[in-house]
Amino acid sequence: MKFNNIAAQQLLALSFATFAFSATAMDKVTLKLAHNLDTSHIVHQTWVQMAKDLSAESGGKMKLRIYPGGQMGGPRETLELLQNGALDMTKAMANELEAFTPAYSVYSLPYLFKNDAHFNAVIHGPVGDAMTEATKEKGFFPVAAYVGGTRSFYAKKPIHSPADMKGMKFRVIVTPTTIRFIELLGASPVSIPLGEVYTALQQGVIDGAENNEPSYVQTRHEEVAKYYTENQHTAMPDYLVIANKTWERLSDEQKAVLEKVLKKSEATQAKAWNLMVAESVKEAEKEGATFITVDKEPFRQALQPLYDDFKKDPVRGPWITKIESAGEGIAQ
Question: What is the distance between the alpha carbons of residues 51 and 53, in angstroms, rounded to a whole number?
Answer without folding.
Answer: 5
